[in-house]
Every structure is written in structure tokens, then in C-alpha cells.
Amino acid sequence: MNNFKEITGGVTAAKGFEAAGIYCGIRKAKKDIAIIRSVVPAKVAAVFTLNKTLAAPVVLDKLVLNRSNRCSAIVVNSGNANACTGEKGFGDAERMAELTAKSLSIPKDEVLVASTGVIGQYLPMDVIETGIREVAAILSPNGGDDTAEAIMTTDTFAKTCTVSFEIGGKQVIIGGIAKGSGMIEPNMATMLAFITTDVNIEDSLLQKVFRKGINRSFNRISVDGDMSTNDMAVILANGLAENGEIVESTDEAMLFESALDHVVISLAKMIARDGEGATKLVEIEVKGAASHKDAVMAARSVANSNLVKTAIHGEDANWGRILAALGYSGVDLFPEQIELSMNDLPILGKGYTILIDEIKAKAALSEKNISLSINLNQGNDSATFWTCDLTKEYIHINASYRS
Question: Per CATH, the architecture of 281-399 is what?
């Protein structure tokens, strides 16, 4: 049983955090710029996209984090990715950090920058500069919801998760927001995630636990197999809960890791559910693998299969597509040993035994939540990925993304 409970508040629920999100006019008539601030410098950990075409904010943030292990603010814009924009784009990202630092009276090296939206267009710095000044003036402990809304692009709903629990006799909180709907592929995607906590935790442990959490959450989702240029996940820990510092190999460390996993996995599943044009959330569990690596490779291959995702959208239990995806996953398989089920309905048994009841399978796949269980029957390791169905609406959204 978990020793934490879900509450509201997102990135401003923990002590010492404030935020705001407003519309400044970057692209569409929606909130499009936000700042998240810790009132004291916070310990920071971050994970970035593996795409070699890095957006200017990602390049800047990596440089900043090489110089400083503390962060006081994150400034985020939506509607424009500031990617593939060269020296001007990098200068614009620096300008965003400078303006934020000046507006909040903090060092520039304590500011991270994030952008999301259309690639290959310069930022409209005139409206962004005004927007940063305006949003910095209204930061509030109640600004979490507006901030979650301001980072959205094609998302259909704001994504937020917050948990409260006790460590060392102190009540502590972890709150997070995320955005992402398209260009979602394991190893990060067109997604931004910002996590805040008032926990006092050892620097190295924060880095270790956060990276592990990302590998179990945001690196386990897929919508369309495309990896973006801007993806990042950042956690700030300001220690204002005043618990004794959490160190490795303790019960407190295990509890913090469990609570953080709950937040990031919840956010990751929201991203998969909100895949562009999606109508179904699909959970893929591969078990019986010879190794954890094999389980991850197999689950990723199925999650990235457009043929599997279109079959699920069409409510067609086409198990042959699943076996094909497993076959090119790179895992050494004995296909005749594989067993499949969908929403606990047996589909395929060992020896290619067809167990499917087409009427029941159609009914199972009509649900909004689909669980696909794959037993490789080769060992004891397992892994879980999340994806969504692939629909005609996905094409419509992305065929006119810039217009």
C-alpha cells in the first residue's frame, strides 16, 4: 500500500514554489508563457531528448547545468519550439533567461528555459519580452493550473499530478505538470515535464532517482514513433519541508522514489492517453522475458508499431501484427512459445493455438483502456509501455500543424 495520497496543486503545491501562466501572443489565442519559481535556490536534476537536432533551449540548459547545480526558475513558452534557429535562436533563449533573472532578481545561471511548438521559426521576442515581465509580476502559490495550461500545444487537457506524504515526521509534497500529445516516442518525445518538491534530498540521490523514474515513465510511452528536438524533464527540490536530508539506501529514499514514480508514471500515461487524435490508452506488458533489456525491447517494438495501433483503433484483435512487431524487436524469440491476451481475454496460446473469440475480442477492444499482455515464456523479467491507437484525426492534426 502506498504511503502517499494524491492532492491538487501541481508545481505550486510544495512549499516555496510559485508560478503563473498567461497569454502573450506567440501564436494562438491561448496561454503561452509561464514561469515556475522556487523562492530559494533548489537542487535540480534534468533529462533531455536524445535527438541530435537540439532546440536552442536544450543547448542552453545543458550549458547552464554544467556550470550550476541549483535552479530558482524555469521560463517556458508554447507555440514556438525555437528549434533549428541557429545563433539567433540561441541568443533568444539566452535573452529569455536574462529577462527572467532580471525580473525575479536572481542569477541568470539559476534560470532554465523551455520551448515547445513549431520548429524552424524565430521567436517573436517583442511579445515574449513583454510576456516574461508580466508573468513574473503575478507569480503565485495558486498558479499551478494556469502554468499547466500555458505549456500545452495540441494537448486536449492539462496534465498534472501531485502527491503528499510524510518523511521524518515532516509532510512533504511532489507536484508535477507535463505536456505532450504528438511526436511522442520512447527516449523522450515532444514533451515537457516539470516536477517540484519541498523535500530535502542528497544531490546525487535526486539525480539517480529522477533518471530511474524517467526511464520507467516518459521513456516508456509512444504515440507516433517520432522523437522531438525540445524534450526535457526537470525536477526542483528546494528542501523547505525541512525533513532530514534523504540519503541513499534508506527507507526514506525508497518512499521518495515510490512517490516520484507515481507522479511521473501518472503524467506519462496522461500523455499517451492524449495522443493526437487518440481514442484509447493502450498498456503493453511484456513478461516472461529472458532479461529486462529483452522485455523493454519487445514492449517498445509493439508500442511503436503503427499496424498494431491502427488495428486497436479498428477494434481488430490482429495478433499477427503483434507477433510481427515482436519478431523485429531484436529479441531472440521462440514465437511458438508466446501467449497473448487483451483485457484479460485469451487471444493466442503456445504453439500458435488460436484462442480468440472474435465477438468478445471486438467488445474488449471497444473499451477506452486496453491492456495487452504478452508472455514470451523465456524467463522472469517484465516491462510495461504505454501507447494509444492511431487514427485519421492524427493525420488531420499534423497535416495542418503550422496553419
Answer: Roll (3.10)
